Amino acid sequence: MFTSIPSFQIDRCKALQAFLVSCCFILLLCFFTPLDIFFSNTKEFDYLFNEIYLYLLLVSVSLIPLLTLILILIPKSVFERVLSLFLVIIILLWAQGTIFYIDYGPLDGGKINWNRWATKGYVEASIWSMLIILTIIFSPYIKKTINKICFVIILTLISAFAIEYVGYSPLDSREVIFDESIKFDFSSDKNVILILVDEVQSDVFDEIISEHPEFKEKFSGFVYYPDTVAGFPYTETSVPNILTGTFYDNSVQFPMYIEKAYLGNSIPRILRERGYEVDLIPTFFDTTISKNPSIASNVIKKGQITNFWQGVSDSLHLIDISIFRSVPHLLRHYVINENKWFLSQLLSTDKSKLSHLSWWSGDENFYGEFAKINDSVGVPVFKFFHLKGCHVPFNRNAMGEHVPDATTRETYKNFLVYNLKRLVSFLDELKSKGIYDRSLIYIFGDHGAGRYEELKINTELVENNGYIKRSTIPIKIKARAIPLFMTKSFSSTGELKISNKPVALSEIAQMVFKDLNIKLEQQPAEFLDNESASQHTRRYLYWNFPNTDPLYEYSIKGDGWLDSSWSGPNRVYTNNGSYEKNFAAIFEQSNSNKYKIESSEPKEDYQFESSGEGNYSITIKKPNGRSAYFLSLVLDDNIDLDDFEINVYVNKRIINKTKVNETTPFLRSPIIGVPIPRIYTMRGDVNIDISYRRKSSSNVENPFEAIYVFKHQNS
User: Fold this and answer.
1) CA quadruple 617, 623, 625, 626: dihedral positive or negative?
2) For residue 322, is it within any domain?
3) Number of other CB atoms surrounding residue 683 within 10 Å
4) Domain encompassing residue 100
5) What average pLDDT does the segment 346-354 reach?
6) Mean pLDDT rounded to a whole number for the chain
7) 305 assigned to some structural domain
8) Which of 205, 217, 359, 428 has its CA 20 to 30 A from that of 99?
9) Phi and psi torsions of 60, nearest 5°
10) What is the dihedral of CA 302, 308, 310, 314, to 10 degrees?
């Protein structure tokens, strides 16, 4: 006799509730929030919406049945309580990502100071705990409305998505990209190769070649220029400055500037017009280069996702960011997982599938494909490579072994040694293929590092009287202005040479044209023909990340490593026009109220005084009623904004309040800029009061290195 097998009965009502809750949970974390992140940051991703949404949908559709089954298997006695908990967690996840916002700065691999937001984290944890406990207590009342709550949540998510989708345009993201498949196709005739290794600081390179003289032989034929000044402190503006020789000045929107600058006398356009194949390979950062086909040969209309596994890995990375945004602060460091992330590492057995896992990955791909180097192109070739290089995190030692990220000079130096070894291996491959001698090669950083105090410019290398403890130019401003720069001419040989000639990265375009005997109608009158640093003035425009408005202009005349060569800021560029320096109170020593006055106007037009501890006042006498001014407060390197609250009043009305800066020390702005509109200058004297309040833990007397007033040029 056969015995009957008991059938597994499924409660349809229970299954429906489990399915609806699963849909809400999975779609929030794996579809709608990732797409919200995508729509808000389209230029940060190398793919289009119509590429990524299918992979997000695939992940979601795969996970919803799994979670539904798990919920169905929960005993009926606790089922409704568990579903109630899921619902409140869904609401908390949504609120955490949209209401309880914390700006950690760019998630670029840099170190996050989690302790800075510890108090806020504990408050969030308390709110989560309280609501979860209340849900457990009142779950019998919630169970009756589970289906309705789920429908409301899904409808809300769909509505928000629809609004964002209507405003989305593929032209704002990645309709065209640079084809990297040809990156190692060189010319059998002539090659011009520009290699940008991000964030390499010149003085640290100088230390390395002194400690490791073998690099002088490995960089054979090169000339190193220690005294090189960048045009800008950050990649966004530095790359177009290098390739076009122009300076962004806030007079137009940045995308308009990019298009116009590259269509001018830029290296890519000029060489493309002269028959070169122009290949731009920004493996690290591609939003700083025009994707106009008249500029580059390798512009293609194609999405970035080229295979199934890449689509899955990119979608998992978006989901990782979604989880990071949605969970409480105290859990986020587990999600980011030392830049390995939470879900992304699931595919880490095949690193080729995980192009997004690290900002280092572009370099990994570059250095891992040497076998493809060839000289099959029959016309001259121009290559521009932008490598991640020494951008944070500093997580490799000199041997390439993974180490914890640290902010010391030694860690950065070891990281640079590893980068140089890999760069040498690329040059060796060019030599072995016979391409090296047929190539004009420039290697440079886009700016210096200067992220932390230990990465200040090491003046021991140029000063006989030892280390200068205090810099009159803030550490970050000057250190980020001093990048690596070295060049190799065609067929040049011999050990690395060092030249004291002053160089500016903004002159690279002219240097390339000069080396190639290309003459343009507009050739600068002064261009590296003078060996004397004292007679070569270079321009540097500093801005506070992440906003290019305002730009502060400095002039460097003499050795860029020395404060005595620096002048400024002399001019400020804003979206509302430019301002000339009119007045300055420069404090003679750190942590002191002793100052000297500089003014381009008659002295009686300005009155400056210290009205007691924590207060300064500036009176502008009888200004032109059409005048507008700009106030700049340059902060001392020895302070942390945690120690001060700084307020600015104009005619007794507060117009600026600088509270505790909730970002990493690197992002702390060394300059506070305060525009003073014309409305304040129309009724007689302008009274500017600057007050600062020290916290009891601070022993710094004065937080300022200098106070500047600039006057609008059209005033």
Assistant:
1) negative
2) no
3) 9
4) 12-172
5) 45
6) 83
7) no
8) 359
9) -65, -45
10) 90
Q: Which of 349-353, 410-414, 561-565 has the lowest mean pLDDT?
A: 349-353
Q: What is 161-202 written as a DSSP string?
A: HHHHHHT--GGGTTSSEE--TTTTEEESS-EEEEEEETT-BH
The crossing angle, in degrees rounded to 10, of helices 33-40 and 49-72 is 160
Token pair of 505, please?
């990265």
| Same-domain pairing of 114 and 152 | yes
Question: What does each C-alpha distance from 594 to 417, 567, 610, 687 come to in angstroms?
Answer: 43, 20, 10, 21
- In this prediction, residue 61 has a pLDDT band, given cuts at 50, 70 and 90, of very high
- Termini Cα distance of the chain: 105
Q: Are residues 208 and 241 in the same domain?
A: yes
8 A C-beta contact, residue 573 and residue 583:
no
Co-location of 154 and 221 in the same domain: no
Dump strand ranges (E) for 637-703.
644-650, 653-658, 671-676, 686-694
Same domain, 373 and 476: yes
CATH number at residue 627: 2.60.120
Residue 687 phi/psi, 5° resolution?
Answer: -105, 115
Nearest Cα to 111, choosing from 426, 445, 437, 411?
411
Instruction: Tell the residue number behind the tokens 């100071």, with chain if given.
Output: 113
Between the CA of residue 374 and those of 15, 272, 326, 432, what are the distances in Å?
A: 61, 21, 48, 10
**Do 585 and 682 lie in a common domain?**
yes
Residues 538 and 602 in one domain: no
Contacts by 7-10 with C-beta closer than 8 Å and gap 24+? Answer: 10/72
Q: What is the pLDDT of residue 654?
A: 87
Asked whether the CA dihedral 140, 144, 146, 149 is positive or negative, the reply is negative
CA angle 518, 484, 637 (to 5 degrees): 130
The alpha carbon of 696 is separated from its chain's Cα centroid by a whole number of angstroms, namely: 34
Task: Give the confidence band of 640 by pLDDT, cuts at 50, 70, 90.
Answer: low
For residues 656 and 683, membership in a common domain is answered with yes
Cβ-count burial 302-332 (b if 16+ within 10 Å, e if not): ebbbeeeebbbbbbbbbbbbbbbbbbbbbbb
CA torsion, ordered 634, 639, 641, 647, to nearest 10 deg: -50
What is the total count of domains within the chain?
3
Q: For the chain, how many residues are written?
A: 715
Q: Helix, strand, coil % (nearest 5) of the chain? A: 40, 20, 40
In angstroms, the CA 274 to CA 381 distance is 11
355-373 pLDDT tens trace: 333 444 577 778 888 878 9
Both tokens assigned to 591:
């942590």
189 secondary structure, DSSP code: S
Are residue 56 and residue 131 in the same domain, yes or no? yes
In a domain, 569, yes or no: no
- Does residue 566 lie within any of the structural domains? no
Question: Measuring CA to CA, which residue among 362, 421, 359, 438 is closest to residue 393?
Answer: 359
What is the model's pLDDT at position 228?
Answer: 96
